[in-house]
Structure formats: C-alpha cells, structure tokens
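Input chain follows. Return structure tokens only.
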Amino acid sequence: MAREFVTIVSGLPRSGTSMMMQSIEAGGIEALTDNIREADVDNPKGYYEYEPVKKTKEDPSWLDGARGKVVKMVYKLLYDLPQDRQYRVVFMRRDFDEVLASQAKMLERLGEKGGGVGDEKMKALFASQLKEFEEWIAGRECFAVLDVDYRDMIESPVEQVRRINEFLGGDLDTDAMVAVVDPSLYRNKR
C-alpha cells in the first residue's frame, strides 16, 4: 500500500514512543531514524530518533523523503511541521507519575539532575501543555491523531495494534507488531 501521509509517533518523553516506533516498523512501515543515539539501559531496543526533526522549523526538507515512513517527534515539534501535506499521528499517552518516575531514573543513571521543578508542578505543566497542544492540533486538517495509552499497549497489545493498523491503512503485519511489545520493559509503574 502506498501511504500518501507521514506517520508520526509522538507524545511526552518517556511515554513509550520508542516501543511504538519498533512496533510500527515491525508491522511494515520503514522507520526514519539515524541511530545516532544508541540503545542503552533506559531504551534497550533503541531510541528511534532522527536528528533533522529537531530543526524542522528552519529546514523541513527531510519531509520530502518521509512520506510512507514513520518518524518519532516529541509533541512540541509538531507545531513546526508545514501544513502542506498529510500526517497521521500515533500519540502515546502515559500516566504523568510514570513519565516522571521514568525520567528521574534515566537522569539518575546519567548522573544528571532534573530542572528542580517539583513533581506536582511538572504534572500541572504537562497537563497545561497537552491541553494547549490538543486544541491546536484539532484545528489542523492536515493531522489525524490516534491516542494510544502506554499501559493499554502493554496489557492488551492485540486490541491496540488492531486500532493502530486500522488507523494506518489496514495492511500491517499485526502479529509482528504485537511480538515487539515487551512487558518486562514496563518498569516504572504507578
């Protein structure tokens, strides 16, 4: 199937975007990634990042080769996408407490400190930013969005993969997509 849109996996950091990238790639959509950021203990199967997305506002030329592929973008970068093409966004949702716990453990392993913002303030900031983002993207015809909860993907991958497959055209290898889901990596539970 020729996909006339760019598939984007997005969400907050530490929300399961790398797992979703792996699943969609296993299903048959080529991943746009540069492998600069190597797999580590925090993402043992890789980060699936692509550096040019970070500079989309200044240089969106990478999009010329992105149609029919899947790319990962932190949700704030979606604001920078030109609206002259179609995007299907698989948006990962995860409990804020789990996101913060995962982020804290990753920073601790890296020997870094967080921004000094308390968890409650950070959760309120996430909620505010996501609400603003949801309102913005709802008004853009070039975007179609499918929300996928991280916990649901871990606990009922067959159902979630069915939804994702339908959203992305219906021709993916759903068995391969489900096989990628590794419940042992769900380490920061609420």
